[in-house]
C-alpha cells in the first residue's frame, strides 16, 4: 500500500495492525479545513483495503480534539461560498451546492465504510463537525474533561454531514438528541457516558489513548474475517429490519464461513492457546 502521508493527519501503524490516526492541526484546534475533509476520506478509504490495518484509533493532537468546521477555510471553497457563478439563480446555485454537501458527507462516511473498526478517543472539546465525525466511528472514548456540542444551530444551519442521522441511533434517546441539537449546549463526558454516546471515561488523555490502543490490539488479534464481517453486518442491521438483517447475514456468512479462520480459532480454543490469523 502507498504510505499514509497527509498534511492534516499523522498515521502510525503498529506491527499488531493498529493504525493510530491523529488529527494534526493543533494551531487551528484541529478544525476541519477543506484539506482535512479530503485527507480523512483518503486515509480511511485506503485503510479499507490495507491488509496491514486491522483496527484504527483516532485522537487529536494539541489542546483539544476538534473545534469543528474551520469557518474561515470553508468560505474559501467556491461551492460553499456560492462564488462559482455569481450570475446563477438560487436553484442553480443550490443544485451544485448539494454536490458539495454530498462530498463532505462521503468524506465522514469513509470511517463507517472502512470495514475495520475505528475507535475515537476524544479529549477536551469536540464541537460541530467533530460530533459528525465521532458518530461515524464504531467506539467512542473520552477524558473526564471532554465535552461535546452539536454546534450547527449557532451558525444558522442544521448539521448536515452525519450527526442528525447517526446520533439518534447511537444514543437511542430521541428527547435528549433533540434537546442537544436544538440548544447547542455543551454535554460533559459524564452525561455523554450516561446516555451512551461514549463507552468509557478516562482521567487523562494519555490514559485514554493507551486504553484505546490496547482495545484496538485486542480487536486486531481476532480473525480479520470475523471482525470485518461483524462490523459490516452491524451497520447493515442498523439500517434494515431484523428479518432483512438475518437474510443478509445468511448470504454473507455463506461465504465468510469458508475461511480457514474458524478452524484456527476452534483448534486454539480446544488447545487453550492463542490463535494467530493471517492477514485479510
Structure description:
The protein has 280 residues and is α/β, with parallel strands linked by helices. It has two domains: 9-220, 2-enoyl-CoA Hydratase, Chain A, domain 1 (Alpha-Beta Complex); 224-270, Lyase 2-enoyl-coa Hydratase, Chain  A, domain 2, CATH 1.10.12. It is 49% helix and 14% strand. The protein has helices spanning 34-48, 71-74, 78-81, 90-113, 129-135, 163-171, 174-183, 189-195, 205-220, 224-238, 242-256, 261-270; strands at residues 9-13, 18-23, 55-60, 118-122, 125-127, 139-143, 147-149, 187-188, 200-202. The strands form two sheets. The protein has a six-stranded mixed beta sheet with strand order 1-2-3-4-6-9, with helices on both faces. It has a three-stranded mixed beta sheet with strand order 5-7-8. α1 crosses α4, α5 (129-135) packs across α6 and α10 packs antiparallel against α11. The two termini are 14 Å apart. The model has no long low-confidence stretch (mean pLDDT 92). Pathway: Lipid metabolism; fatty acid beta-oxidation.
Amino acid at each position: 500500500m502507498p504510505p499514509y502521508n497527509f498534511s492534516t493527519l499523522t498515521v502510525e501503524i503498529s506491527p499488531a495492525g493498529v493504525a493510530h490516526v491523529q488529527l494534526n492541526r493543533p494551531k487551528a484546534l484541529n478544525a476541519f479545513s477543506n484539506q482535512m475533509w479530503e485527507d480523512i476520506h483518503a486515509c480511511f478509504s485506503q485503510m479499507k483495503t490495507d491488509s496491514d490495518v486491522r483496527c484504527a484509533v483516532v485522537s487529536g493532537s494539541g489542546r483539544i480534539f476538534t473545534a469543528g468546521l474551520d469557518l474561515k477555510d470553508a468560505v474559501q471553497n467556491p461551492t460553499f461560498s456560492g462564488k462559482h457563478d455569481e450570475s446563477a439563480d438560487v436553484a442553480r446555485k443550490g443544485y451544485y451546492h448539494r454536490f458539495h454537501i454530498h462530498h463532505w458527507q462521503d468524506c465522514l462516511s469513509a470511517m463507517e465504510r472502512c470495514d475495520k473498526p475505528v475507535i475515537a478517543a476524544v479529549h477536551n472539546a469536540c464541537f460541530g463537525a467533530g460530533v459528525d465525525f465521532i458518530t461515524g466511528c464504531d467506539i467512542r472514548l473520552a477524558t473526564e474533561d471532554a465535552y461535546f456540542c452539536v454546534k450547527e444551530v449557532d451558525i444558522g444551519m442544521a448539521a448536515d454531514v452525519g450527526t442528525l442521522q447517526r446520533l439518534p441511533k447511537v444514543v437511542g434517546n430521541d428527547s435528549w438528541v433533540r434537546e442537544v441539537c436544538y440548544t447547542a449546549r455543551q454535554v460533559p463526558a459524564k452525561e455523554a457516558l450516561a446516555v451512551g454516546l461514549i463507552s468509557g471515561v478516562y482521567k487523562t488523555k494519555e490514559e485514554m489513548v493507551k486504553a484505546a490502543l490496547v482495545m484496538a490490539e485486542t480487536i486486531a488479534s481476532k480473525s480479520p474475517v470475523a471482525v470485518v464481517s461483524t462490523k459490516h453486518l452491524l451497520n447493515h442491521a442498523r439500517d434494515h429490519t431484523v428479518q432483512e438483517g438475518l437474510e443478509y447475514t445468511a448470504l454473507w456468512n455463506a461465504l465468510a464461513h469458508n475461511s480457514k479462520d474458524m478452524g484456527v480459532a476452534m483448534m486454539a480454543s480446544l488447545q487453550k492457546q492463542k490463535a494467530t490469523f493471517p492477514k485479510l
